[in-house]
Design brief:
Layout: E1 4-11, E2 14-21, H1 22-34, H2 39-49, H3 56-72
Antiparallel strand pairs: 1-2
Protein name: Ribbon-helix-helix domain-containing protein
Pfam families: RHH_4
Domain Ribbon-helix-helix: 5-67
Amino acid sequence: MSLVEKRSVTIRGHRTSYSLEKPFYDDLLAISAARDMTLAALVAEVDAQRPRDANLSSALRLFVLEQAKRTANPL
């Protein structure tokens, strides 16, 4: 079982944090590298698209899951 790690990031000048298990964090890093963008920029993108009542950590997990599904089942 993966332990959750808390990480900090600055989004639009505001410092915030999120908590992810290592496999989710590793996949998030891989996605940012594949898109040739910083991890902070990717987190900011996900943050901007998430519903305001969803927390950032959950939004990041769902984003990684969606990317994995797209990779497994390309249209």
